[in-house]
Design goal:
Protein name: MYND finger
Organism: Candidatus Thiodiazotropha endolucinida
Structural class: alpha+beta
Order of helices and strands: HEEEEH
Distance between the termini: 93 Å
Strand order of the largest sheet: 1-2
Keywords: Membrane, Transmembrane, Transmembrane helix
Radius of gyration: 29 Å
Largest sheet: 2 strands, antiparallel
Helix content: 40-55%
Number of helices: 2
Strand content: 15-25%
Shape: rod-shaped
Amino acid sequence: MGLRYIFIALALWGVFLIGRHFWRQNQLKNNKSQQIKSVDSVQCAYCGLHLPKTEAVCSGDVYYCSKAHQKAAEKQKS
């Protein structure tokens, strides 16, 4: 008689695992639209740091991570 309860418990556990699998797959499909969007990044011409283009200091076609690096690069050119 105890063996019957063990089989019923295992069957219920299997149904639970299968249901949880399908529920997680559904959640993953719904979360794909909420993924992080990529941004354009540039590299500082002075130190090589990569940063978002919107945060960079632009001098012509050259990008810097800060005004200090822009000034330091100008001093090196002179």
